[in-house]
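Section 5: illustrative case.
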């Protein structure tokens, strides 16, 4: 038995990705974390580089990953129960920390119940598996995350049972609802809360309002689902995410602990009955080991911090740094997409220039993500900056100064 022939074919496929511009660059390896000192926020060291870097490409919006209380909570849970659960949830792999985290995150997003997963990706897949049948019709935003698109495929949703509306186009959404076949029994409208490449927000209040006339048309009604992975903890006046920002709750909230909470894992929050259906039917929950107790303990502590005066201070500081950065790039005459979220896209609109700017920033100690054709359409080339609560005023000034010198 040999992989030689397969390896040969796979190498050709990888080369094709490179030729198309879709191959991933080699992964940089973080080998050191330098805590904040004075006016400087945290810095990172990379393997093979003597520089210290500001991370402007991290999802850890509230900068809780290195919080001493979260680390202490994870350490205590590990010492009490070990580093792994040893089984799936329904074969005695459920620990008190799993249940506590589910109850806590449900309260945080103001839903009756929740179920935790290894990631928001597997949560999306699990929801689709749990609530989809041959008479379910799915409607999604054009820019939905890959995990939502993949969930449709894993749940075997046929093309006649799904529709897409243009990004945040409410007239388009209404047309999709009008076109749902009469024999459909349930309709699911699913969308990102904050769109990860743009930083703009779904108008949940308008989406819910549009669904109201259609509620009695289908046996199981019209259900609204938001994947608010980039919103939960970092967005809205109380950090409750896109629902908080828009003032309207969807029926189902999917989220992650891996962004604003700075830990690991994902969740679905909804009614108690829907969550029990997820427990009974979601393959991505049933057939895999759960999060470690360390992840759960750290997640519990992170939510408590978010819900405390310290959390509100971090959120306020984050908003101030976001506004500082947005004002700064506007003063430099650079283009972005308006919005209050910590994702701040810099629209470069040229592939070669985007590559040059990403390298220029790297050479000066700033880590960012560049998105170029064919990953995005020609003319939409973008650099995504992500502001975190650990960034200081001096950090933002430093990055803006570097941008101002780019030719």
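Designed sequence:
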């Amino acid at each position: 038995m040999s992989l030689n022939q397969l390896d040969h074919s796979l190498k050709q496929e990888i080369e094709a990705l490179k030729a198309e511009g879709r191959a991933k660059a080699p992964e940089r390896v973080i080998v050191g974390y330098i805590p904040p000192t004075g006016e400087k926020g945290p810095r990172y060291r990379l393997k093979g580089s003597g520089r210290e870097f500001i991370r402007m490409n991290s999802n850890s919006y509230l900068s809780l990953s290195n919080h001493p209380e979260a680390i202490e909570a994870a350490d205590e849970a590990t010492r009490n129960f070990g580093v792994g659960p040893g089984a799936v949830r329904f074969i005695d792999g459920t620990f008190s920390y799993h249940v506590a985290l589910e109850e806590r995150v449900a309260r945080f997003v103001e839903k009756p119940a929740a179920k935790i997963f290894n990631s928001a990706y597997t949560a999306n897949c699990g929801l689709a598996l749990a609530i989809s049948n041959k008479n379910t019709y799915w409607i999604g935003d054009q820019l939905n995350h890959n995990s939502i698109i993949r969930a449709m495929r894993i749940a075997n949703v046929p093309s006649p049972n799904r529709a897409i509306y243009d990004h945040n186009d409410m007239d388009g959404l209404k047309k999709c609802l009008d076109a749902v076949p009469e024999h459909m029994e349930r309709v699911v409208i699913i969308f990102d809360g904050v769109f990860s490449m743009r930083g703009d927000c779904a108008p949940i209040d308008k989406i819910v309002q549009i669904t109201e006339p259609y509620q009695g048309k289908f046996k199981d009604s019209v259900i609204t689902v938001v994947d608010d992975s980039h919103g939960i903890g970092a967005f809205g006046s109380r950090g409750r995410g896109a629902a908080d920002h828009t003032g309207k709750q969807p029926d189902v909230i999917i989220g992650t602990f891996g962004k604003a909470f700075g830990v690991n894992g994902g969740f679905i929050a909804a009614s108690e009955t829907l969550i029990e259906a997820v427990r009974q039917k979601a393959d991505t929950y049933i057939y895999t080991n759960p999060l470690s107790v360390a992840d759960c303990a750290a997640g519990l502590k992170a939510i408590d911090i978010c819900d405390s005066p310290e959390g509100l201070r971090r959120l306020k500081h984050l908003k101030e740094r976001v506004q500082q950065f947005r004002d700064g790039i506007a003063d430099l005459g650079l283009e972005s997409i308006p919005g209050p979220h910590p994702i701040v896209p810099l629209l470069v609109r040229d592939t070669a220039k985007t590559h040059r700017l990403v390298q220029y920033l790297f050479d000066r100690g700033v880590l960012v993500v560049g998105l170029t054709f064919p990953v995005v359409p020609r003319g939409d080339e973008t650099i995504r900056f992500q502001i975190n609560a650990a960034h200081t005023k001096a950090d933002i000034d430093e990055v803006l100064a570097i941008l101002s010198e780019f030719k």
